[in-house]
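JOB MANIFEST
job_type = single_chain_structure
chain_count = 1
residues = 503
[input]
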Amino acid sequence: METKTRPYDELLTLLREASLLGGTASILSWDQETMMPSAAVGYRAQQMAQLSGLIHRMATDPRIGELLDRCEADDDMTSDPDAAAILRETRHHYERATKLPAELVTERAEVRARAQHEWQEARQDDDFERFRPWLERNLELARRVADHYGWEAEPWDALADGYERGMTAASVEAVFTPLRDRLRELLATLMDGPRRPDERFAAHELPVDAQRAFVRRVAERIGFDFSRGRLDESTHPFCGGSHRDDVRMTTRFRPDGFLDSLAATMHEAGHGIYEQGIPSELMLTPIGGAASLGIHESQSRMWENQVGRSEGFWRWCWPLVEEHFGSAVDGFTWEAAHHAANVVRPSLIRVEADEATYNMHIMIRFELERALMNGSLAAADVPDAWNERYREYLDVEVPDDTRGCLQDIHWAFGGFGYFPTYTLGNLYCAQLFEAACEQVPGLVEGFARGEFGPLKQWLNDNVHAHGGRHEPKDLCERVTGKPLSADPLLRHLEGKLRPLYGV
C-alpha cells in the first residue's frame, strides 16, 4: 500500500511547492495595486516575470507528468473522490501549462505588470492613447497564448476555458441573447411604471473616514474574519491574497458614493468569505480554491445584492448608519436608503450598476473583447465601439474614456475571457439563493435582526466546503437539484423591482 501511495505523495509535494510560490506572486500583485510606489513599476514587472517563469517551470516539470501517469493508473487513487479530483485538475492544468513556452509566460507577466500601471495613469488622466499600446501588446500576447493552447471556433475560447471550464463564445452568446431580451423587456416595464423609488440618498455626501469604519463593521458582521484578512483601497476593488488565512480585499470611496462603497465592500467580502471557507486540508492542492470564477462571483453578488440591497438588511443596519454618521443622515430613513440602493437606471460604470442593467455591461465587454481577439476590432477603435454599444444597449452617452473603456482593469492584466463569468455568477447566485431560502426557514426575515450567520453557514456547508472538487455546473445541480437556469435571476429581479416601480 505504501508503494502505491508514494507517487501521489510526491505529486502533492511538487504541487504544493508551486502553489506556495504562486501565493507569493499574488501578494506582490496585491501590493502593486495598493501600496507600491509608482516609481517601482519597472522593477516589479521584472519580479513578476521572474516569479511567473519559476512557477511555470515548476508547473511543467516532466516529473509531474510521470507521476500523473502512474497515479491515474492506480485504482486506489482514482477511486478516492478527493484524489480523483486532484488528479483531474492537475491533468487539466498540466496539459495547458506545457503548451506554453517559458519565454511567453515571462514576457506576458512583465507586460501585464507594466500595463496595469499605465492603465492606472491613463484612467486618471482620461488618456486612452497612453494605454492603447499596452492593450495592443496584451492582445498580441493573448492571441499567441490562444494559438499555443489551440482552438476550434475562435481564439477567445482558448482563453475563456481558463476562467470557466468549457466556456466558449458560442455558449456565452446562447445564454446572453435570450437573457438580454428578457432584461430589456423588464427594463422597459420598470421605466414605464407609475412610481419611482426615492433616490436622494444615493448622492448624499458622507464623510469618507466614517464610511471606512462603517463598511469594515458591515463586512465583519456578515462573516468576514479580519484576523485572516484585511481591507484596503485601490483604483479598482478586488479580492486577492495567497490562501484562506491571508485574504486581501480592497474597496474605494468618494464622499457622494457611500452606497457604491458599501456595495463594493460587501461584494469583495463575499469573495473573501468564500476563500476563508475553503477547508484547510485542501490548501495548496489543485482543489483548494473555488469551483470556478462563475461560482466565486455568485458568492460576492449574493452578499452585495440578495443581502445588501434587501429590505431586511437596511432595517438592521440603519441604526449603525445613524451611529457612524450622526446628523449627516438627518432627514433620511432606512426606507430611503433601501429605495436608493434599488434604483434602476442605465448608467456608465459597471461596478456601480443596478441589478437590472448590470448584465448589459458584461454583454458589451464580451462582444468587444471577442471582436478584439478575432481581429475584427482594432484596439485604436475601442473607444468609439464602446460608446456606440452604450448608446445602443443602455441609451447613455459616454462623456470620457475614464468612465468608458478605461474603467475596468481586466484588459490591462490580459484577462480576456474573464467578463462573462460575472453574468454566470449572477445566474448561479440567484439559483443558489433560492435553494438556501427553501432549505433554511426564515432566512431572509433574519436579515432584519442582523442574523447573517445562517446564510454564511449554508454557503460554508454547501458551496465552500467542496472547494474545487466539482465542476461548476455539477456543483450547482448538486446543491440546487436543477441545471443552471436564468429563471431564478428573473424571479429575483421582478419580485423585488416590480413593487418598487408599481408594476
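[summary]
Strands lie at 229-233, 239-243, 246-251.
The chain is about 65% helix and 5% strand.
exit_status = 0
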